[in-house]
Amino acid sequence: MGPEDLPSLLAGSAEVVPAEELERKLSLGRPLRVKLGLDPTAPVVTLGWAVVLHKLRQFQDAGHTAVLIVGDFTAQVGDPSGKTETRPRLSEEEVRGYAERLLDQFWKILDPERTEVRYNAEWLEPMGMEAILRLTASTTVARMLERDDFAKRYAQGKPISIMEFLYPLLQGMDSVAVEADVELGGRDQTFNLLVGRDLQRAYEQEPQVALTTPLLVGTDGVQKMSQSVGNYVGITDPPDEMFGKLARVPDELIGDYRLLTLDFFRDPAEAERVVKGLADGSLDPWAEKRRLAREVVDLYQGDGAGAAAEARFDRVHRERELPEEIPEVAIPPDVIVGGSVYLPALLALLGLADSNSHARRLIEQGGVRLGGEPVSGDALELPVAELRGLVLQVGRRGFARLE
Predict the structure, then answer these.
(1) Which of 288, 292, 321, 364 is deepest in the core (most CB within 10 A)?
(2) What pTM was computed for the model?
């Protein structure tokens, strides 16, 4: 627990502000309080979220105190980072439900015995008007408009609510409340993390170091991985679904995926080797993509799960000769009730069956496959999260990849 850990703690990072401060803090001879705040605004921990969670685990393994802030209060405000318009507010019930689902997933990466879990409603909810006025007096409108997404919206005449201006200040108050030495976040969180430094000074604390990680591009190869966009891989996805999604990652992202999902906390040199081999042609992109998928599945589902998923992937795509071009279709919202999909209704709406009753007969006759496996008549309602990315097959000619 000291400066000797600096190289591994910097591996896979995007920026450290101020850079020299992290080494100085590591020399203090005490465990640092390393904060990561995550708002429970969606039900799944994606590989994108996992990047910064693994960075927190690195600090944890180096002997520092991992402080995980569950933003049950800030989630109801809504983080404006990267947003081009005001986002809708979530209800307290929605946030609480997401928080309960996420905590179990966090423990796939963090050690629960060595994690300090705090809910920011503990200190934000009781704030009175005097405390809020003191908080807002610590910054200026000009400072807020330095933020790129705010500046663009202001220039375009798009509305920015005062509530959105408050979000970085509320996140900064988290750092004050837990007396953070270091705060972690994705690269899009840089502004928020620096506001936390400003607030700590205003509240007479030593300012934290801001350490950001790169943003993982989604499986579409275009946008940041996001559940709202649908281009994500969840760490609790079924092995076959996880393997299938990773098999569709664009070739040019293989190196980034290796570094950010596996190698920065295991062996950064391996990611460099893969990038070099792909560039000079000594490594085959398809073979490397399959290896990546196997290793990611093993990481979250256990040793051997990746090879088993790969074998099933090959059996479906080679032995059953799926067509090269399978139409990608969005799951109609009409068939989603309580987070689950009634499969016969889905088949009927997609035109793969004439009616719900016809769809049920097809299922009973073994004529419907999902992800290469026959659908059982006992499993007509399935969680929507388990369907995304899978191929739905009816007979020999009906195919749809669910998105």
Answers:
(1) 292
(2) 0.76
